[in-house]
Structure formats: structure tokens, C-alpha cells
Q: What sequence folds into this?
DNA sequence: TCGATATTTCTAGAATCATGGAAATATCAA
DNA sequence: TTGATATTTCCATGATTCTAGAAATATCGA
């Protein structure tokens, strides 16, 4: 994952309402939930929720599909895995590698 | 990890300069680096860097220790692990658990 | 003590963001 | 076609954030 995509994803998740939205979408699983039910569930005005869902979608973290009058939102597991992968690769040092990074051991 | 701490950490990492700062600190490893060298390395004015380092420190992602006139900054592996743990627990669905979440199987 | 160096805090301006009311769009059911 | 429902887009406002110059603080060496 590119750093620009990671920034988009981190940015999407770094806001309280959006993190709660995403968390809730994960709870709903791969079948997802429509915008109205989600708004009721989270007690957020429909237009505010729409704003945040669009933000999450731009970051690739959720996918939407229209189903009649409703629009179904579902989290995107692949992108979340990409983000966790990015953090592990770029922002994390595994215990067993600390010696290598400090050049006290060659790995 | 509490959701409020996760938000702080995500927020800290969701800004380009700070993500680059943190990435660089990870490269420097557990011995860390002082603010001046980091500023030169990243081409960021000292006061701007100071602002971002304070932000990362508030989020628990970096630790600082004064060493004479310099202040040494080092990433905090534990907090990063906490964050990745939070994302895995709250924002991620493992492939093998998808059936449970959709109630098509009991786990 | 004094001057030099390292870093932070103060400050102000520009930019971006979150929120929710109101209007617009899309779809359905009759 | 009309009215109802679901959702988004438009818009204005208040709040937050990033940036970097200038001033303040801390430490060292002489």
C-alpha cells in the first residue's frame, strides 16, 4: 500500500464519528447495512452520516451498492488488511528484529 | 486499548508530516534520534517538527528523553502494537470468522 | 557569567474539516 | 403521474489544524 493511500485510510479512521461508523459496519459483517438503519443505530443525522460514509468510501474502506431506494454499505476487509499491513511494515518493529535495526546483529 | 486512545493514535498518524516522522523514527530504532538531526533529515523547520513530535508524544507513540542540550526521540513500540491490536479487534474481520459474523455458522 | 546551541512555546494567518438545515435526486408503490 | 421514502448534495458556520516567524527556555563550554 502506498503512503498516500495509508494516509487516506488513517485520516478516515481518525475521526470519532467515522471510527464508530466503521466499527459498526464491521459488526454488521459482509452483508452490510443500509444508510438509514445505520443512521438510526448511531443516532447521527442522515446527511452527516452520508458525509462520513463518502469519506470512508473515498479511502477505500467501505463499499456501497444501491438496493432499490436504499443504499447498502459494507466495510472493505481487503483495504483494512492493507492498512494493517502498511502499519506493520512501516511503523512497527517486531521484538525479534530490534537487534538488526540497531546493527547489533545481522539478520 | 480504549477507543479514545485509538483515536488519538490514529489522528497522530493521519497527517503526512507526522506519519513520515514516525516512519523515520522507526528506522532509527530503539536508540532514537535527537530533534535537530530529525529536522535536518526530514527538511522540516525545528518548531514545526517540535509541534508534530509533541502531537505524537501526546498520543503515546513516541517517548522523549533529554540528553544535555539535545532531546532524544524514540518511537514507542508498545503503543503501536496496542493500536494494531485495536484495529484487529474492532475494525477487522478475519476470513475464517466471516461465517460466524453472518450467523451462517456458530463459532 | 556570557555567548552559542538545541529545542520549545507563543502567536497569527491560512486552510481544512465537521455539522446539520434545506434543497435536490433517485426509487418505489399506487 | 403523484406522493412517499431514502439518500445525497449544497451551503453556511463554527471549530480545529498546520505552518513558520519570533521570542522564550534550557543546557553547555569557556
A:
Amino acid at each position: 500500500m502506498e503512503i498516500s493511500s495509508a494516509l487516506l485510510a488513517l485520516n478516515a479512521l481518525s475521526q470519532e464519528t467515522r471510527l464508530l461508523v466503521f466499527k459498526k459496519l464491521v459488526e454488521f459483517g459482509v452483508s452490510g447495512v443500509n444508510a438509514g438503519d445505520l443512521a438510526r443505530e448511531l443516532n447521527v443525522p442522515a446527511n452527516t452520516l452520508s458525509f462520513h460514509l463518502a469519506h470512508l468510501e473515498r479511502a477505500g474502506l467501505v463499499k456501497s451498492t444501491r438496493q432499490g431506494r436504499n443504499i447498502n454499505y459494507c466495510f472493505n476487509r481487503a483495504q483494512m488488511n492493507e492498512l494493517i499491513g502498511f502499519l506493520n511494515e512501516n511503523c512497527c518493529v517486531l521484538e525479534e528484529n530490534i537487534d538488526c535495526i540497531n546493527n547489533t546483529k545481522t539478520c
User: Anything to note?
Assistant: Strands of chain B lie at 33-34, 62-67, 70-75. Residues 34-36, 39, 46-47, 49-51, 54, 66, 68-71 of chain B lie near DNA strand C (CB under 10 Å from a C1').
